[in-house]
Predict the 3D structure of the following.
Amino acid sequence: MNERSIFNIPALEKKMYPEIGFCIYCGTPHDLTSEHIMPYGLGGNLELPSSSCKVCATITGRIEQTVLRGPLRPICVYRRIQSRRKHKDAPTKLPLEVRFGTEWETIQLPVDEYPLLLTFFNYEIPGYLDPKNYKSGVRVSGQYTYSFGPRLEEVIKRIGAKDIRVSQSYVPSEFAKMTAKVAYSMAVAIGQINPTMGRPKVVNAILGKTDDIGRWVWTVSEPRKRLKDILHFIGIERDEKQGLLIGRVQYLTDSGTPMYGVILGKLDDKFIAPVV
Ligand SMILES: [Zn+2]
């Protein structure tokens, strides 16, 4: 695809972008805080100063917490990714449902002995490109599970259990919103979106004003790439063929996880117009 020009940003790079001076979500110039483009809990060190008001930061913070308290959390601890309080409140042991006989019970296992499973959703093509079949929310057509740490069978053998259950507690819509937030704030940071000219409609979905995050976010169907030495990947691309500005986000890139796409706006000669 020669039409693309891609801005690649390895998201673990430490970088402070120029101050914005208004909320990139609602526009207010008051009560501004610094935005971590990739959540800090995932090791994000890209910062966009004075770019999110406290009200919007509370909303996006809640989305991130919903996702990061799920299965991503032990992965982050496991990989010793930094977090706000340096994992002081992070568990060194995690609960595991185990069956030794007929009854299920919960035991505590150290994180490095824990069979970590991480599920990524497969979202269908964005409603924006498939308006006939899209109604609301996000359309999940499957999921991919990645295993980190010791294998399930090894753990079962070691603790002498008959069976174990690893719970998965992702919320598909919140994961999609978090991904959209990452792509949108990055596009603003590198000057590909100027929110004073209009904000993309995906922002309404991020803020929960509309229930249509699946209109903008999808799983890119292409061979999985493993990018060595890059923990997460964020790309912003100008897709001249489709006339769209598209964000691409891949978490835990070195594990060959799915790539997510986010429709951020229509390409214009001079600026990115909001998608209508
Ligand atoms: Zn705001």
Residues 4-11+116-149+170-266 form one domain.
